Description:
By secondary structure, this protein is mainly α. It has a domain at about 5-105 and about 155-170. Helices cover about 75% and strands about 0% of the residues. Helix 1 (about 5-25) packs across helix 2 (about 30-70), helix 2 (about 30-70) crosses helix 3 (about 75-90) and helix 2 (about 30-70) packs across helix 4 (about 90-115). It is globular, with a radius of gyration of 17 Å.
Amino acid sequence: MIQESDWVLAVFLAAWAGALDWRYRRIPNWLTVPGLLAGIAVNAFMGGWPGAKSSLLGAGLGLLILLPFVLVKALGGGDWKLIGAVGACLGPARLIAVLIGSMLVAGVMAIGMIIYKGRVRQALGNMAHMMRAFVTLHLPGPQVSLDNPDAVKIPFGVAVAFTIIFFGVRRALGAA
């Protein structure tokens, strides 16, 4: 049972991670691992075993959903661990809403960046390459992964921070 006050912890964690991701393009373990442990501890303290269970389910679900993206190097490890920590703070149901919102925000960021950098044709070619790899059950290759130094990279931690702050403010204002 996740408490409403857990949004405060999630907003704090995500805002800090988003600022670091924006500035340095990485989210460090010294933030995500204590964030995950704090989420579990706060929920266990506030909600007993049901709170701890929800927290653990949220962390596990977040890590499980995004693991394939980390394995094909479409998402960084810091972003992945941030989602696990956010899941520990918010639980599985709220995490799903945050993930959907974060993916929409990241998509808008990506479209803006692609247009700004003049890489629309390259992006369309990369999407076709990824679809071929998906249909033929192959990995897409390094040209469309985070390993490619020429790839346009979106700081997913910023999208997560924006989404969680938005939901947290709505919650604080009583809108949701």
